[in-house]
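Worked example 3 (structure in, sequence out).
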């Protein structure tokens, strides 16, 4: 049971709101030591893991770029752009993005992301469409728009990526099933993901349409 000390360290560290990276590294080192590894072996494992996943650090390059774009009015420009489209509503904006994003995920095109698209572009456009139609929006509805905007990215990415036959998720599923003695191909997994992606789009668009109606009712009552 002592080998589970890493889990305890993570729980305590997160509960005390300590530095995340420091907590995880400490948990990893402690687990390795009680598991019989030398400190050098632990460092070797950590180094190999970093080299293998170094492309993940590219994500941090986008943060200062997005910050500069927001500083110089990207969000305001996005809201201004959508204000010129009189027929635009929050639900329609999110529905269009849902279609584009899930199609991109199915083709393994790396567009989208909460930092790169939702915060600086999609959310301001969704909020701008609502304000263009109703004027000032209550805070509760603003928070709903934020949540729906973020959820759109999650829906499209999660349910669309496995449509691509060489996606990491597809390969993981195939590998896991083969280890369990289930003979399945990547194409079969991809084909099974297609109807799920279609159902996701339909349900999402229904959800956005219902939100438009709810927002319209709230603003009329106001």
């Amino acid at each position: 049971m002592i080998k589970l000390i890493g889990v305890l360290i993570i729980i305590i560290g997160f509960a005390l709101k300590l530095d995340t990276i420091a907590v995880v590294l400490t948990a990893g080192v402690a687990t390795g030591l009680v598991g019989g590894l030398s400190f050098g072996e632990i460092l070797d494992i950590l180094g190999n893991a970093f080299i293998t996943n170094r492309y993940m650090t590219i994500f941090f390059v986008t943060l200062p770029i997005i910050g500069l774009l927001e500083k110089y009015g990207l969000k305001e420009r996005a809201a201004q752009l959508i204000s010129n489209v009189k027929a635009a509503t929050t639900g329609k904006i999110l529905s269009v993005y849902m279609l584009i994003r899930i199609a991109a995920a199915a083709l393994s095109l790396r567009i989208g992301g909460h930092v790169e698209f939702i915060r600086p572009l999609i959310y301001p456009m969704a909020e701008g469409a609502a304000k263009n139609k109703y004027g000032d929006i209550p805070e509760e509805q603003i928070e709903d728009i934020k949540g729906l905007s973020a959820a759109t990215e999650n829906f499209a990415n999660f349910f669309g990526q496995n449509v691509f036959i060489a996606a990491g998720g597809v390969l993981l599923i195939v590998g896991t099933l083969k280890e369990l003695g289930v003979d399945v191909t990547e194409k079969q997994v991809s084909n099974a993901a297609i109807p799920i992606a279609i159902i996701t789009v339909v349900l999402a668009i229904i959800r956005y349409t219902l939100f438009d109606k709810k927002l319209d009712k709230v603003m009329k009552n106001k």
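Notes: The chain is about 75% helix and 0% strand. The longest helix spans residues 186-221.
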